Amino acid sequence: MVRLTTDLIAKSIGRKHHNEEHLAQYLRKITHLNLSDKNIDAIGDLSVCKNLRVLYLYDNQISQIQNLDFASNVTHLYLQNNCISCMENLSPLKNLEKLYLGGNCITVVEGLEKTEKLKELHIESQHLPLSEKLLFDPRSLGSLAKSLSVLNISNNNIDELEELSVLENLSYLTAADNQLQHMKDLEVVLSKWTKLRRMDLTGNPICHKPKYRDRIIIMSQTLESLDGKEIKEMERQFLINWNASKAAKKKKGETMTNEHAAYLHFSDFKTHPILPFHYSHSGKEKPNFLALSDMQKVERISLPRTLEKK
After folding, report:
1. CB of 62 within 8 A of CB of 41?
2. How far is the C-alpha of 302 from the C-alpha of 196, rounded, in Å?
3. Residue 165 burial (C-beta neighbours within 10 Å; 0-12, 13-18, 19+)
4. Least CB-packed of 109, 154, 207, 279 within 10 Å?
């Protein structure tokens, strides 16, 4: 077991022969600390590192986020590929801008209510229990609504995105290798993500839907790249015009269908016409009052001129 302490830092930077006072002065000044792949399983007391801005702790054996009360100045925290199962004790990191947690065992995105400056969250490829998906705490999402611009949630068995629609400043979403399959779900979030520039959904069932790319380009007016392929303005304009033309033809077809139906309804009166008069046994014309009564109910039918003269 290896615990992250100031002694470990001293060894890693080759200052084990300096006295404690010089070491303390150095630790108070450092802004970047890289202790990745050191087999560390716990974060100890680093309170002397008050000016730390960037902390690299990826590729270790850390199971719990702890002892970061000193880290109010940290802007970048790299904790990917550890054994972390719970997002906790992150409240002191009030200036945190980028958080990397990919490749851990996290089941719920939470504990971010105080990290209101967070711009990037990378939480891809969690080692989830069988058939479970990554979940999101609404309180954390609400806190990140105005700040988060980059989100990586790839390979987390996610089957819908609607709850993420509150992230109004999102500009780059990576959600590859999930279980997204409904275009309606995408339509909802894309109408809210008015600043989205790039999106990657490769490896999702939705990618096999008919005209998948065309439909998404029409849904989002701001998207510049989809699944790693650039969206050119000429392509978007063509699809918008094509879709508008298709909609117009459909509307025209519906109008013609309605008019045809109305004509068929009106033609029922002509199938078996009732003459406005009938002949008596003497051969003289007599008004057919039943016919006249029925005809008066149909405004568009005019009386024969022969009957008008009479």
Report:
1. yes
2. 63
3. middle
4. 279
- Cβ neighbors of 304 (< 8 A, separation 6 or more) are 276
Look-up of token digits 């630790």: 27
pLDDT along the chain (310 residues), means of 10: 82 65 84 94 91 96 95 97 97 97 98 96 97 96 97 98 97 98 95 96 96 93 95 86 74 62 52 49 52 46 46
Domain extents for the chain? Answer: 2-245, 273-310
As given in the structure block, the two tokens for residue 247 are: 């909609």
Query: Using CA atoms, how far apart are residues 94 and 225, in angstroms rounded to an integer?
Result: 32
Angle at 303 between CA 297 and CA 307, to 5 degrees: 130
Residue 112: CB atoms within 10 A of its CB come to 25
3-state secondary structure (DSSP) of residue 81: coil
pTM score, two decimals? 0.77
User: Is the CB of residue 113 less than 8 Å from the CB of residue 92?
Assistant: no
pLDDT digits (tens, 9 = 90+) for 97-112: 999 999 999 999 999 9
Strands 120-122 and 98-100, bridge-based pairing: parallel
Is domain 2-245 annotated with CATH 3.80.10.10? yes
Which residue type occupies 248?
Answer: A
Using DSSP's 3-state secondary structure scheme, residue 4 falls into strand
Q: In angstroms, rounded to a whole number, what is the distance separating the alpha carbons of residues 121 and 135?
A: 14
Which residue carries 């009479």 as its tokens?
Answer: 310
